[in-house]
Amino acid sequence: MLTGEQYKATLDDGRATFFEGERVKDLPGHPVLGQVVQNVADGYDWLASQAVDGVNPASGVPRTAEELREKVELVHTAGMMAHVNYTSIMTLATAAGRLASSAPQYVERLDAVVRQAQDRDIRMTQCITDAKGDRSLPPTRQDDPDAYVRVVDRGPDGVVIRGAKLHITAASFGHELMTIPTKAMKPGEEAYAIAAVIPVNAPGVKIINTSYAPRHPDLRHFPVSGQEHFPEGFVIFDDVFVPTERVLLDGETEQAAVFAHSLGLWERLGGLSSMADGADVLVGLAQLVAEANGLARIGHVKEKISEMVIHATVVRACLEAALVHAETGVFGAVFPSELYTNAGKYTGATAYNLMVRHLHDIAGAAVVTAPTMADLENAEVGALARKYMSTSRGVDGEYRTRLFHAIRDLTADSFGGWKQVTNVQAGGGLYAQRIVTRKHYDMDAAKHAALTVAGLAGGSGGPSRGV
Known about the structure:
Radius of gyration: 24 Å
Strand content: 5-15%
Order of helices and strands: HEEHHHHEEEEEEEEEHHEEHHHHHHHH
Structural class: alpha+beta
Shape: globular
Number of helices: 15
Number of strands: 13
Distance between the termini: 52 Å
Largest sheet: 7 strands, mixed
């Protein structure tokens, strides 16, 4: 396993990464991105403390439902980069099982990539969403054929790809880019049915970073985003050569969707796990600020918090169901229930805005107008600010102000905006989760139950197939 300091040293590899218009030559030393590097390094050291026989506990493929539960909890604690890496490894392991019968020539390469990532203790991120151009048109009918990542040249030892992948969390801070088709492909779109694992520092790879990191030296105002923030990468493949052994799909259009579906499962499981914990935090903040405002016994406030409690409980129950009903794949890997994972992620995402609205309604406008901590410490106005931010003898003005800062940072500032969008988009949009949920729901059983209730279970005359 790598130490945190060894991880930092691996970033000095000539990678082309950019932030706010300038190329970053020293990631660890950068005033904003350097905080991310340190966070990842701390994650390396924490995982090393959890190692068994010197093996990273977050890199192994689970073989039992209990191992799956342990992995989910471990990577959730280990931070964003560990989660992204684990999701990548599990995507490749899941894809290997699904390609075993239809495209077995890639299984050995997939296994080799996973083993190498584990042995080197590197971090791998996922590149899936293309630039897409005109969303109403397929790849081959775009004005710019590079709107989707494609093969532009090939030789006896590999291929050359061109295009871009957007919304790639922590792309600049890993070592490999797992690049896969964003959707199913059709005959004639063979050049776009390309999957590969590419080093971040490969010639032609360029990454533009955007960040919701707080631009303020006093992180007391940003108790959430000040602790952990990860830029989103705009990854450009400017004629990048990929050797054959790192190509995981090349032209098999009928298999192009396998990788996206595999990634979707693990991305949504990670999102569901995060939503379950996050929903509990929203409930806690709502109750605390209601008490601080003197409103905890007011009827409509209690009702809002009750609704938030029910939401948190249902999302948690979906996570539990996804793990309890885990299934075993072709090569013995265990993966969560597609049905409960997708239904849970959809439920958490669709109701998130309403839960935040309840929190804001209970808290009040001070969520965005509360004084800074520096104001509370000012010799001239600090005592007055504390006086008027307090609500009773038992509620100190600083305590209440800190609650407002936490709510603002979590739900109403740059991080809050990022979280609101990613809750919907991470792992694919809401429609994708509806499709997968319906696909895995036992509709025949539901129809039979309905026919039984109607007294028609043994009869005929109805439609023979579902819609």
